[in-house]
Amino acid sequence: MTSLSVASILAEAARRRPAKIAVVGGPQRVSYADLWEQSRRYGAGLVSVGVGPGDKVALMAPNVIDFVRSYYGGLSAGAVVVPIHLLLTTAEVAYVLTDSQATTLICHSSQLAVGAAAAAQAGVRLICVGPIPEPPEGLLRLETLSAEIAPLPTFISRQAEDPAVILYTSGTTGQPKGAVLSQLNLVLNAAVSAFDCNDSRPEDVVLGCLPLFHSFGQTVSMNGTFRLGGTLVLMPRFAGPEALDLMIAEKVDSFQGVPTMYIGLLAAAAGRTDLPKLRLCVSGGASLPMAVLDKFEDVFGAHIFEGYGLSETSPVATTNQPHFGTRAGTVGHPVWGVEVEIARAEIEDHIELLPTGELGEVVIRGHNVFTEYLNRPAATAEAVVDGWFRTGDLGTRDAQGFISIVDRKKDIIIRGGFNVYPREVEEVMAGHPAVAQVAVIGTPDDVHGEEICAVLVLQPGLAAQAVPTPEELIQWARQRLGKHMYPRQIRIMEQLPMGPSMKVLKRELRAQLS
Asked: How far apart are CA 320 and CA 308, in angstroms?
């Protein structure tokens, strides 16, 4: 068996660049050497209360340096880290703790109200980390546990196929499932993200605004930056104006975000002349409307590399890459060591690959594919067929090998027997000058089965005469889309419902409009 640990990412960076600033969190600046020492000290604290190799340690913290210390501290102790979304309810956190068989919850003091109640409900050990003015009597604190003992001399050895992290899916159908990612999955995905996807450099200063409990922020922003040897500037909660200020103050030149973040930066940039000098931008998590991509590149002068992946693929599967050339509107080519094909979507018991150009389900195999859904062999067997992970996304591959994502299978709208792909409608609606954000969903209809509904957020600060009526928006779309595709319903909202990773929650939109 081959020894490998995700903890080696930070250990190696500390060996190569001990004095370099690894992470910035507010006024704190921590070098690689100090961050690795502090992480090993946290690891020793966990070992002192009985955490051992293979134990599940849940982590509930925002984008602060203690997330990084606790994450690598758990990994250095040989534990399996279970990051928890911060917008979950007490019952939902307790479910994750129970389902993952966690023995311990490391909970940041800012999340203690929910975390403590969930830990009590699930019957797991609670350890607090982070500032707390008056700690309740008997509360275990990771800083206290770690203060009087020596740090671990190095990380505890694990095997390449051993689990490293369990990421819980959003649970759009049924209860969330824990996708088990191995040490090999995450180490290789971080390395590929750092060195093979774009023009990343060790001197890069990266804005860490993606949630670290989410796969995109965890692998690409945190692990990828550390594997590269760059500097990660943490932002606990994204907001466009504050992000611009922070990027200017810290000389950030690399930005990674989801489309809603790019929209937020564009809105914040309006009227400003002091914009950050961005060299490299990466988009993922959802499709980036072409109108947003073009405008961002005009305003900020930075090229955006759009990619694609899922929690089950560690997450990076494809991205636009300089080696192959980039093509706007696509998610590029598979990353090194990964195969991405298009398969016949209606066949469930085996994989039948389709020729170039045909629409089908995106399937993936390679070093990035998760090992299993925890304790769910039937769900694992349904998702991984003939060695290929079935993504549930529909897409195509052109003659030059560029992958395009058309939509989620479950989001297809069937109107009068015709398939309508929401992304195609969203691309057009996003081009209207008054539209800031758009999400297209299907609503029940007695005549057509489903009707096409575009839910819009308008640009801020529009003059009264520039605010379009729903009828005007429908006519505008009708001129640009096929007769079966244009939305017959328009809803205007102040904001779209967002998940913790700032992706639009279409299931909530459907519930709100049903």
From this structure: 9
Give the model confidence (pLDDT) of 437-478 as tens digits. Answer: 999 999 988 888 889 999 999 999 899 889 999 999 999 999
The helix (run of H) or strand (run of E) holding residue 408 is strand 403-408
The one-character DSSP state at 461 is T
Tokens 């984008």 appear where?
Answer: 63
Residue 256: strand pairing partners: 282
- Identity of the amino acid at 476: W
| Residue 230 CB partners (closer than 8 Å, separation 6+) | 200, 201, 202, 203, 204, 205, 206, 254
C-alpha closest to that of 311 among 403, 415, 185: 185
Three-class HEC string of 303-329: CEEEEEECHHHCCEEEECECCCECCCC
Helix H or strand E segment including 274: none
Q: How far is CA 134 from CA 45, 109, 130, 138, 139, in A?
A: 21, 11, 12, 12, 10
Whether 47 and 25 have beta carbons less than 8 Å apart is answered as no
Cα gap 142→145, rounded to integer Å: 5
Q: Please give the structure tokens belonging to residue 283.
A: 């988009």
368, with CB counted inside 10 A (0-12, 13-18, 19+), is buried
Instruction: Give pLDDT, residue 275.
Output: 97
488: Cα separation from own chain's centroid: 32
133 CB neighbour count, 10 Å cutoff = 5
- The count of other CB atoms within 10 Å of the CB of residue 417 is 8
Write down the pTM of the prediction. 0.90
Q: DSSP string covering 280-309, please?
A: EEEE-SS---HHHHHHHHHHH---EEEEEE
The amino acid at residue 150 is: A
The mean pLDDT of 10-20, rounded to a whole number, is 98
Q: Is the pLDDT of residue 174 over 70?
A: no
From CA 126, how far away is CA 103, in angstroms rounded? 9
151 CB contacts (<8 Å, ≥6 apart)? 37, 38, 40, 41, 43, 44
Tokens of 485: 């595709």
Q: H/E element holding 181?
A: strand 178-182
| Whether residue 315 has a cis bond before it, omega within 30° of 0 | yes
Phi, psi of 291 (to 5 degrees): -60, -40
